[in-house]
Design brief:
The complex is a heterodimer of chains A (309) and B (337). Chain A is mostly helical. Chain A has twelve helices and no strands. Chain A has helices at residues 18-34, 38-55, 57-60, 98-134, 136-151, 154-165, 169-180, 182-196, 199-207, 211-248, 258-266, 275-302. In chain A, helix 1 (18-34) crosses helix 12 and helix 4 runs antiparallel to helix 10 (211-248). Chain B has 14 helices and two strands. Chain B has a two-stranded antiparallel ribbon with strand order 1-2. Chain B is globular, with a radius of gyration of 25 Å. The two termini of chain B are 14 Å apart. The model of chain B has no long low-confidence stretch (mean pLDDT 80). The chains are: A mainly alpha (309), B mainly alpha (337). At the A-B interface, helix 6, helix 10, helix 11 and helix 12 of A face helix 5, helix 6, helix 9, helix 11 and helix 12 of B.
Chain lengths: 309, 337
C-alpha cells in the first residue's frame, strides 16, 4: 500500500494575523529604507525633537496658571532682548517670555496637527471609501460635493469663519479641519477604484467574502499608503496655515503660539527688536520643514510611481 | 470641436457658481443674527423696532431679503464699511486695484522665475544645481510667508535701508493723475519716469516675497515634467541630429514640459491671492487683503462680505481661464469630462 501523507491538521497559512504581520514587517523595512536618505532622516529627527518638546513641555518649563497656553506676562520686563536674566530669549511687548512661547507653542501646534489630521483623515477616508466602493450615482454625488470644498480658497473661508464666529484658536482649528478632508477622499476613492480591479478581489468574492470583509482586508490596507504620505505632509501644512492665521490676528491675544509670537513681535521690528518675531517664525519654519522632508521621503519610498522625480 | 463644447459648458456653469457664491456670502452675513442690531438703540419700544425692521426690509422672508440684497449689489450698493467710514463701493475700487497691481507683478515674477528655475534644475538632473534647487523648493514650501516677509523687512529696511514700506512716496504720487489706479500704468501714461520708478521701488520687495511660494511650486513641477520629457525619444532624435543641448531643451523639451506646469500656475495664482492678506499687512500695502483683515478683527461685516465676493469671483475666473488654456493644450482633459 502506498503511504499517504498524514492529513493536514493546520491551515497552510501562519494563522489569523499572518497577513497583518507580513505587512508590518514589510512596512518596517520600507521605513528603514526611507531613512537612508539624508534629507528624510533629517526630517524625522526634526519631527521627533519637536514632538518631544511638545509632549514634555510641562517638564521643560513650568506651566502658566490658570491657562498654560497663555504666555506668562512679566510686566516688569517688557521688550527685553535675549540674554536678560530670567528670559533667555527675550520678552514680548507685553512681557511674555519668548522661550515659553516657543516650547509651549510646540504643544499648541501638536494639538492643532493631531486634531485636524485625525479628523480630516477619518472623514476623508470614509467619504472616499463610500464613493469608491459603491460607485455609480453615489460616487458622482459625493465627488461633486468634494469638488465644491476643493474650490474654496482656504484663507477666505478662514476669514469668513472668524468673521461670523469670532477670532479664536478653536475656530482656526475648525476652519482648517473643514477644508482639509477632501484630498483624502480623492486619494482613497482613486485607490479603491484602482484596486477593485485586482484579481484577489475577484477571488475573495468568489470565495464568499462579504463586501465589508473584502474592503477591510484587501482594499483598505493597500489604499492607505498615499494617505499616510499626505497626512504627514498635512501635519506640517496645517501648522503653517494655523500660524499664518494667528499672525493676522485671528487667535486670542497672548496665546502661546508661534504665529501669535510673530504677530506680537512685528511692531517692534522697526525699532530694531528682532527677537520675538524671528524666534517665533523660525519654529514654524522648522516644524513645517521637518514634516515636509519626512513626508517627501516617505513618498519616495511608499509610492513608487513618483520615483522619476 | 470638442474643446469648444468643453469651453462653452464651463462658461455656462459660471453663473450658477456665481449665484452659489453670492448665496453663501449672504447666508454668512445673516448667520450672526439679523443686522438690525447695529441700528437699535436702548430705549426702543417693540413697535419702533418693528418699524425699523420694516424700513430696512428685514421683516421680509430670507429669500426676499436675498433678492433685494443681490439687486443692491448689482446696482453697486455694497453697504457701509465701518473700517473706512465710507460706502464700501467707494473704497473697494482703489483697494482692489492696489492688490491687483501687486498680484500681477508678483505673478509675472513667479511664472518667469519658476519656469526658469525648473528648467535650469531639470536640465542638470541630479547634479549639484539640481540638489540646491530641490532644497530651495522644499524650503520655499515650508517657509512661513509672514516670517520670510518680516525677515526681508529686517534685512532690506533695517540692516540695509534700501526698500521703502507702503505703496508710494506721497510727494511723487501726488504729482501725477490716476486714471486707471495702477500706479505703474498711470506713471507711464503721464510720462513721469520718476513716478514709474517710485512705483517699481515700492513694488519690488513685496512682489518678490509674494512670489516665492508660487515660484517654488512651479519650479518643482517644471523640473519633474522636464525630466520626464527628456526621457522621450524625440529628445534623442534631436540630439542625434546634432542640435546643441541648449537648443534641444529650449526648442523641444521645454515646450512640452510646460503643459502640466500650466495647471500649477493656476494653483500658484491661488496661493498668491491668499498671500496678499499677509504681505499687505507686513509691507503696509493699502490693498484689499489688509482691509479685509482689519474688518474681520473689528466685525465690519459689509467689508468682509465684499472681500469674499470679489476674491471668490477672481478665483473662479482665473481657474476657469487656466482650465480653458489647459483644455487647448491637452485634449485628454476634454475627453475626461
Amino acid at each position: 500500500m502506498v503511504e499517504l501523507a498524514p492529513p493536514l491538521r493546520e491551515p497552510l497559512g501562519g494563522g489569523r494575523y499572518e497577513g497583518a504581520r507580513t505587512r508590518a514587517k514589510r512596512t518596517a523595512g520600507l521605513l528603514l529604507t526611507a531613512m537612508r536618505s539624508a534629507t528624510t532622516l533629517a526630517g524625522f529627527t526634526i519631527v521627533t525633537l519637536l514632538i518631544g518638546m511638545a509632549l514634555f513641555a510641562p517638564l521643560l518649563i513650568e506651566p502658566n496658571t490658570p491657562d498654560p497656553y497663555q504666555m506668562p506676562r512679566d510686566w516688569t520686563a517688557i521688550n527685553e532682548p535675549p540674554g536678560t536674566p530670567g528670559h533667555i530669549l527675550g520678552t514680548t511687548p507685553e512681557g511674555g517670555d519668548v522661550l515659553y512661547g516657543m516650547v509651549w507653542g510646540a504643544r499648541t501646534s501638536l494639538r492643532l496637527a493631531l486634531i485636524v489630521v485625525s479628523v480630516t483623515v477619518v472623514v476623508g477616508v470614509a467619504i472616499g471609501s463610500i464613493a469608491g466602493f459603491l460607485g455609480g450615482k453615489w460616487d458622482e454625488v459625493m465627488m461633486r460635493f468634494v469638488d465644491i470644498f476643493l474650490a474654496i480658497p482656504e484663507m477666505i473661508l478662514a476669514l469668513a469663519i472668524a468673521a461670523v464666529l469670532g477670532p479664536s484658536f478653536r475656530n482656526i482649528i475648525l476652519a482648517i479641519a473643514l477644508l482639509g478632508w477632501p484630498k483624502y477622499a480623492r486619494i482613497v476613492r482613486g485607490q479603491i477604484i484602482h484596486l477593485k480591479q485586482n484579481e484577489y478581489v475577484d477571488a475573495a468574492t468568489v470565495m464568499g467574502d462579504s463586501r465589508w470583509r473584502i474592503y477591510r482586508k484587501d482594499i483598505l490596507p493597500n489604499a492607505l499608503t498615499p494617505v499616510v504620505v499626505q497626512a504627514t505632509l498635512a501635519a506640517g501644512q496645517v501648522v503653517l496655515f494655523g500660524a499664518t492665521l494667528s499672525f493676522i490676528g485671528l487667535a486670542e491675544a497672548g496665546l502661546a503660539e508661534w504665529g501669535n509670537l510673530v504677530s506680537e513681535g512685528q511692531s517692534g521690528i522697526i525699532a530694531g527688536r528682532w527677537w520675538v518675531a524671528t524666534f517665533g517664525g523660525a519654529m514654524v519654519f522648522l516644524w513645517s520643514l521637518g514634516f515636509n522632508l519626512l513626508g517627501d521621503g516617505l513618498r519616495d519610498v511608499l509610492d513608487p510611481r513618483t520615483e522619476g522625480r | 470641436m470638442q474643446v469648444r463644447e468643453y469651453v462653452i459648458r464651463r462658461l455656462l456653469k459660471l453663473p450658477l457658481v456665481l449665484i452659489a457664491i453670492t448665496a453663501l456670502v449672504f447666508g454668512l452675513s445673516r448667520v450672526g443674527g439679523s443686522p438690525i442690531g447695529i441700528y437699535l438703540e436702548h430705549e426702543m419700544s417693540p413697535s419702533e423696532m418693528a418699524a425699523l425692521a420694516e424700513r430696512y426690509g428685514l421683516d421680509k422672508s430670507l429669500p426676499e431679503q436675498y433678492v433685494a440684497w443681490l439687486a443692491g449689489v448689482l446696482r453697486g450698493d455694497l453697504g457701509w464699511s465701518g473700517v473706512s467710514v465710507a460706502p464700501v463701493s467707494e473704497v473697494l475700487p482703489a483697494r482692489f486695484v492696489a492688490t491687483m497691481e501687486l498680484a500681477i507683478v508678483a505673478g509675472i515674477i513667479t511664472i518667469v522665475m519658476g519656469i526658469g528655475l525648473g528648467t535650469f534644475a531639470g536640465a542638470r538632473r541630479n547634479r549639484l544645481a539640481d540638489h540646491i534647487t530641490r532644497v530651495f523648493t522644499i524650503s520655499g514650501a515650508s517657509l512661513p510667508l509672514f516670517w520670510f516677509a518680516l525677515l526681508m523687512v529686517i534685512l532690506f529696511y533695517l540692516v540695509i535701508p534700501i526698500a521703502p514700506l507702503g505703496r508710494f512716496d506721497p510727494n511723487i504720487y501726488s504729482q501725477i493723475a490716476h486714471p486707471t489706479g495702477f500706479y505703474t500704468i498711470d506713471a507711464l501714461l503721464a510720462g513721469n519716469i520718476g513716478a514709474f520708478f517710485d512705483a517699481l521701488r515700492h513694488l519690488a520687495l513685496p512682489a518678490f516675497v509674494m512670489g516665492i511660494e508660487g515660484t517654488a511650486v512651479i519650479a518643482r513641477m517644471m523640473r519633474s515634467s522636464l525630466v520626464e520629457e527628456m526621457e522621450e525619444d524625440y529628445v534623442d532624435a534631436a540630439r542625434a541630429k546634432g542640435l546643441p543641448e541648449r537648443l534641444v531643451i529650449k526648442r523641444h523639451a521645454r515646450r512640452n514640459a510646460l503643459v502640466p506646469t500650466v495647471t500649477v500656475i493656476g494653483l500658484g495664482w491661488g496661493l498668491l491671492l491668499q498671500g496678499t492678506v499677509v504681505i499687505e499687512t507686513v509691507f503696509r500695502w493699502p490693498g484689499m487683503g489688509r482691509w479685509a483683515t482689519t474688518a474681520v478683527l473689528r466685525g465690519d461685516r459689509a467689508t468682509i462680505m465684499a472681500f469674499i465676493l470679489v476674491a471668490g469671483v477672481i478665483f473662479l475666473v482665473v481657474n476657469l481661464i487656466v482650465d480653458i488654456i489647459y483644455a487647448y493644450l491637452d485634449r485628454r482633459v476634454v475627453l475626461g469630462e
